[in-house]
Amino acid sequence: MIYTLSVAMALAAIFLIVVQMMTIKHTADLQEKNFRTQTYKALQDVTDAMDMFEINQFYALDADAGEYPSNSTGLFPNSEHITPLGALEKSGEILVSQKFSTTNSRVAINDHSNYFSQIQVQSFQHVYNRKSAQDAQKLRYQIFMRARAELPLPLRFPQEILAQALDSALKRNDILLDYKYTVLTQIDGKSANIMGSKDYKPGKKTNLYKRLLLADDEPIRPDYLCVYFPDQNNNFFKSASFLVFPSLILTLMIIGIFIVTLQIILRQKKISQIKNDFINNMTHELKTPISTISLASQMLRDSSVSLSPGTVDHISGVIFDESKRLSNQVEKVLQMAVFNEGRLKLKFTQIDLNKLAETVASNFEIRVSNENGELKTDLVAENPFIRGDEVHITNVIFNLLDNAVKYSKASPAIELSTENRNGWVIIQVKDHGIGIPKEHQAQIFERFYRVPTGNVHNVKGFGLGLSYVKRIIDVHDGKIKVDSTLGKGTRFRLYFPLKNTQNYGKEN
Fold first, then answer.
1. Helix segments in 68-209, DSSP class H
2. Cut 0.85: pTM above it
3. Under a CB-based contact definition with an 8 Å cutoff, are residues 492 and 472 in contact?
4. Residue 469 CB burial class (10 angstroms; 0-12, 13-18, ≥19)
5. What is the pLDDT of residues 45-65, one digit of tens each?
């Protein structure tokens, strides 16, 4: 179930990331599309402004042409001056007619009995004159634009006018980015910049926006207004950052919470297994002394057994030793419980680690001799004084020596030494026993943990000794290091700081 949930959560996290990336990309695409639309609208505004500039130029030059054109303009070389409608009617060149819904009739202008009054005739004359003037102005505009189309672009409008129009158009469309522009044309089949920014140098991946500048020219000239924005990508990134960073932070938080939760579940599963092993191991450890005491008690109560003073002394000794062993085992469990609750009280005094190690070694030497082993000491620390709890440090050294004996192959060969190094007092316990596999060395200081030995239960213990050692060393602001090679032995090094203060040793 744990692995299934892990895979499901991983797939969900990946899918969430993909969805977020697609959403952010879609948002960025919309922003880019909107920016492109605004830019092209601004370019259209510029082209319209340039067209209006030339129209204004024409009207400025045409201001002296008068309301009614004549053949003096050169537009109508084969025509006389404009003749009034009345004169044309008298000469018979035109007729003014009114179309009715039922009949068609022609009525003479001078016939005052007809449907047309003199005022109407004057109105017709005004419309005729205005229309003639407009047609003449259109012809003059066409001639003006054809002449302008043949001029080089810098002569048609100054660069300052184009720059001002472009700047105003971009601001009107809410585009406030720094920009570079140029007018690109074709000269002898090659592209050339004829006006614009001096530092106009777009890159290969630059988003370039261009539009035909004077689309009404005949023939159309390939003059394109080109614009690009050097900080466009950075601007898109900043505008999208309000989505990217919160999404990234939330996603990382979800993934982090998932990983931590998974680690807690796996650690709890591991602790559950260790506790089960501890209970099984404790059952074995307690069963042996209880069985021995029970058997000795039965011997004392059995009337068939000859209870000589020597026998009674032997049986009572067995009961005493096994009771003491049972008491020590229970004390270890209770001691770790006190440690876990933070109720352990330490008494700090000045300690000579050389003397302390020598005392422990002398007391432990008897046990080593009984195992046909050897305990060597090399206590050469020049400054062995630290502040610490003498009882617990004694227990630490005793536990390490006890493990060295228990995990030796046959006759134990143990070395106990002290030295000074870089502001530390180092106590070293080295054996030549079975060693610890590398994959288990990081876990040996955990509560209840014991290196797996299969179904073989040849070494007694609860898995609490090294956990107790590590806790005592930590309380003294020290360090513990282990070096071990499978089949060759193990070396424990305890580091105690020389510069202890009154605050050292206080549990947090």
1. 85-90, 118-149, 153-156, 159-172
2. no
3. no
4. buried
5. 999 998 888 888 888 877 655
- Model confidence pLDDT, tens digit, residues 117-127: 556 666 777 77
Chain center to CA of 234: 18
Q: What is the dihedral of CA 399, 401, 406, 407, to 10 degrees?
A: 110
d(CA 303, CA 315): 15
197: closest CA among 214, 210, 179? Answer: 179
Q: What is the CA radius of gyration of the chain?
A: 53
3-state secondary structure labels for all residues of 171-211: HHCCCCCCCEEEEEEEECCEEEEEEECCCCCCCCCCCCEEE
Residue 189 backbone phi and psi in degrees, to 5: 80, 5
DSSP secondary structure string for all residues of 411-433:
S-EEEEEEEEETTEEEEEEEE-S
Hey, what amino acid is at 5? L
Q: How many residues does the chain have?
A: 508
Query: Who wins on pLDDT, 451 or 446?
Result: 446
Q: Two tokens at 457?
A: 């239960």
- Average pLDDT on 109-116 reads 47
Is residue 291 classed exposed, middle or buried when 0-12, 13-18 and 19+ CB atoms within 10 A define those classes? exposed
Predicted confidence (pLDDT) per residue in 135-170, tens digit:
888 888 888 888 888 788 888 888 888 899 999 999
Chain CA centroid to CA 471, Å: 37
* Tokens standing for residue 62: 């045409």
CB-based contacts of 316-319 (< 8 A; 24+ apart in sequence): 318/292, 318/293, 319/292, 319/293
Q: Is 417 left (phi over 0), alpha (psi -120 to 50) or beta?
A: beta
CA nearest to 224, candidates 37, 50, 35:
50
Q: Identify whether the C-beta of residue 389 lies closer than 8 Å to the C-beta of residue 347.
A: yes
* N-term to C-term CA, the chain: 37
Q: How many CB atoms lie within 10 A of CB 448?
A: 19
Q: Which domains does the chain have, with CATH numbers?
A: 235-337 (1.10.287.130), 344-497 (3.30.565.10)
User: Taking a C-beta distance cutoff of 8 angstroms, is the pair 466, 399 a contact?
Assistant: yes
Q: Give me the numbers of helices (H) and strands (E) for the chain, helices first please.
A: 11, 13
Q: Which two tokens stand for residue 322?
A: 């096994």
H or E, element range at 479: strand 479-485
Q: What are the structure tokens assigned to 110, written together?
A: 């001078």
CB atoms within 10 A of CB 375: 20
What residues form DSSP beta bridges with 368? none
> At 5, which helix (H) or strand (E)?
helix 2-61
Q: Facing residues of 494 across strands?
A: 427, 480
